[in-house]
């Protein structure tokens, strides 16, 4: 999972770098050739995109560095943490749900990835198999029990 996240980030960093270094300078140059920059919407649009891409690139580079610094020895082997795949049971309905805890930027609801910063992620962090969690939601509360846990350490060593 860690390598997948790094690969995904590397791909987006590469794409954005190309846009920042090749595509946007050409767009800006074309807009400059049209003349008066004060009323040139293409120029303003290209500059705004350039600022956005630069900010996103800085953010992704920071996240990539954070992932590179993840030390498996510091990830708990028996508690929910970054990268953990955790199956919970809703104590009222009996429904089982499986989630993988990820950094905020890597959320993919379709594959069950949730942010560690989300209310559910925060409620699950540090929990062990058998622990019960009460999750406060706007429309009431959910009571969950941790049924199964596979930590990132387990996944890497498997």
Strand-helix topology:
Layout: H1 2-33, H2 41-68, E1 85-90, E2 96-102, E3 113-115, H3 119-124, E4 132-137, E5 140-150, H4 152-157
Parallel strand pairs: 2-3
Antiparallel strand pairs: 1-2, 1-5, 4-5
Helix pairs in contact: 1-2
- Overall mean pLDDT stands at 85
Task: Give a count of the beta strands, DSSP E runs of length 2 or more.
Answer: 5
Structurally, the number of domains stands at 2
Level-1 CATH class name of the largest domain: Alpha Beta
Structural class comes to alpha+beta
CATH topology of the largest domain: Chitinase A, domain 3
Shape: elongated
Give the neighbour order of strands across the main sheet: 3-2-1-5-4
Percent of residues in helices: 40-55%
Order of helices and strands: HHEEEHEEH
Descriptive account of the structure:
The mean pLDDT is 85. The chain has 158 residues and is α+β, with helices and mostly antiparallel strands. A 5-stranded mixed beta sheet has the order 3-2-1-5-4. It is built from 4 helices and 5 strands. The longest helix is centred in the N-terminal third of the chain and has 32 residues, at 2-33. The chain is elongated, with a radius of gyration of 21 Å. It has helices at 2-33, 41-68, 119-124, 152-157, and strands at residues 85-90, 96-102, 113-115, 132-137, 140-150. The protein has 2 domains: 2-69, Transcription elongation factor, GreA/GreB, N-terminal domain (Helix Hairpins); 74-157, Chitinase A, domain 3, CATH 3.10.50.30.
């Amino acid at each position: 999972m860690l390598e997948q996240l790094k690969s995904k980030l590397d791909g987006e960093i590469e794409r954005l770098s190309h846009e920042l270094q090749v595509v946007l300078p050409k767009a800006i140059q074309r807009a400059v050739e049209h003349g008066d920059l004060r009323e040139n919407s293409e120029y303003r649009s290209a500059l705004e995109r350039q600022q956005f891409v630069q900010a996103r690139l800085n953010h992704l580079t920071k996240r990539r560095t954070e992932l590179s610094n993840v030390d498996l020895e510091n990830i708990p082997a028996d508690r929910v943490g970054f990268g953990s795949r955790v199956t919970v049971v809703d104590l009222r309905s009996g429904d089982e749900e499986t989630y993988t805890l990820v950094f905020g930027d890597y959320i993919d609801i379709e594959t069950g990835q949730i942010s560690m910063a989300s209310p559910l992620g925060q409620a699950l962090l540090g929990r062990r198999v058998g622990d019960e969690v009460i999750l406060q939601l706007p429309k009431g509360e959910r009571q969950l029990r941790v049924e199964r846990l596979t930590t990132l350490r387990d996944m890497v060593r498997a």
